[in-house]
């Protein structure tokens, strides 16, 4: 499965190099290497006790492309100027995402490394891809952008080709028209944007919405997929792995989901502490080593509040990371001081059987 990393803070910028490249288990290294505390044993003597399906769901090579979106005020600052108006009449205030996508390995991509070395942001979405049937091309790389909104996914919509037409029929004209690639993930994003904007036109992609509205749009997206599978595929419907994340640069909602009675979704963790270890301005190092000249002398207490949601921990302090439970969501809105980790809405008849387990 794919791997992704999200960082959100209302006040504390993060250098992309510190979060995405430097750690030994940074996203850039998760192309091949994985670290899953609380989920998969990492002591060789304990491996025989591991759920082999959970292991398989998290241990694929992620070699099919990378993408990173970071939020900045640059567009708004230049677009509004002294007039208070934008050139196209759309809302431009606040944070907007820039994006870089490529199909080569992140550690071998000099453009990616240069960008990360010289970019700071208070909101970042980054993703490395393990393709599941659609072409390896930048257009199919996450995150997917709809105006000021970004969306990414780790997992798979089971039998997507059989429900694709029906799913597209649920989309607004604007959301359907904004789909550029062929992945199940981008179609999930378009469905999410349809519900978030109440079927609005493209101008609705420029607006911001409350975190509760974002959560409801995510819930409806998941429900539509499962109910469409049940309607069109019946007993042949297989379970989905839907680790989903969406942001507008200020708020964030994330899902860890699988509609099976016992099987686990792909891994997903959160941390409200690891940002200090991932920032060279503060003491410590993500790998617990001492590098002369790295620390710039700021106290940990000075670090702003932040949230990281990621497929895998990227620092050596396992205690700084919490495994998000099966079928739980994370909601974060620093503006209204909302932070919640709780169960998602789940219908008992959503349980599906995994044919690979037979």
UniProtKB/TrEMBL annotation:
<feature type="domain" description="Glutamine amidotransferase type-2">
    <location>
        <begin position="2"/>
        <end position="358"/>
    </location>
</feature>
<dbReference type="GO" id="GO:0005737">
    <property type="term" value="C:cytoplasm"/>
</dbReference>
<dbReference type="InterPro" id="IPR017932">
    <property type="entry name" value="GATase_2_dom"/>
</dbReference>
<dbReference type="InterPro" id="IPR029055">
    <property type="entry name" value="Ntn_hydrolases_N"/>
</dbReference>
<protein>
    <recommendedName>
        <fullName>Glutamine amidotransferase type-2 domain-containing protein</fullName>
    </recommendedName>
</protein>
<dbReference type="GO" id="GO:0006751">
    <property type="term" value="P:glutathione catabolic process"/>
</dbReference>
<dbReference type="GO" id="GO:0061672">
    <property type="term" value="C:glutathione hydrolase complex"/>
</dbReference>
<dbReference type="InterPro" id="IPR052373">
    <property type="entry name" value="Gamma-glu_amide_hydrolase"/>
</dbReference>
<dbReference type="GO" id="GO:0008242">
    <property type="term" value="F:omega peptidase activity"/>
</dbReference>
């Amino acid at each position: 499965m794919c791997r992704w990393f999200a960082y959100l803070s209302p006040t504390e910028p993060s250098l992309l190099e510190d979060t995405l490249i430097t750690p030994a288990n940074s996203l850039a290294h998760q192309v091949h290497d994985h670290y899953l505390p609380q989920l998969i044993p990492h002591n060789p003597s304990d491996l025989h006790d591991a759920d082999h399906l959970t292991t398989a769901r998290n241990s694929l090579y992620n070699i099919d492309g990378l993408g990173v979106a970071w939020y900045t005020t640059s567009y708004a600052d230049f677009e509004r100027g002294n007039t208070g108006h934008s050139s196209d009449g759309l809302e431009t205030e606040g944070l907007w995402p820039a994006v870089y996508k490529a199909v080569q390995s992140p550690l071998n991509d000099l453009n990616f490394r240069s960008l990360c070395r010289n970019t700071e942001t208070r909101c970042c979405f980054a993703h490395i891809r393990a393709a599941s049937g659609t072409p390896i091309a930048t257009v199919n790389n996450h995150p997917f952008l709809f105006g000021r909104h970004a969306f990414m996914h780790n997992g798979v919509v089971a039998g997507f080709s059989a429900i694709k037409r029906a799913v597209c029929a649920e989309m607004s004209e604007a959301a359907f028209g904004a789909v550029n690639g062929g992945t199940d993930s981008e179609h999930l994003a378009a469905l999410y944007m349809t519900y978030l904007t109440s079927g609005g036109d493209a101008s609705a992609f420029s607006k911001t919405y409350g975190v509760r509205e974002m959560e409801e749009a995510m819930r409806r997206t998941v429900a539509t997929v499962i109910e469409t599978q049940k309607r069109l595929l019946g007993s042949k419907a297989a379970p989905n792995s839907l680790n989903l994340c969406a942001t507008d640069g200020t708020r964030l909602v994330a899902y860890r989901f699988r509609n099976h009675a016992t099987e686990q979704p792909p891994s997903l963790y959160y941390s409200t502490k690891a940002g200090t270890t991932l920032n060279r301005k503060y003491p410590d190092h993500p790998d617990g080593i001492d590098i002369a000249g790295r620390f710039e002398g700021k106290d940990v207490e000075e670090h702003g509040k932040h949230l990281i949601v990621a497929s895998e921990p990227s620092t050596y302090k396992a205690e700084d990371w919490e495994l998000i439970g099966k079928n739980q969501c994370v909601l974060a809105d620093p503006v209204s001081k909302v932070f919640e980790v709780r169960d998602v809405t789940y219908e008992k008849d959503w349980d599906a059987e995994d044919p690979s387990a037979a």
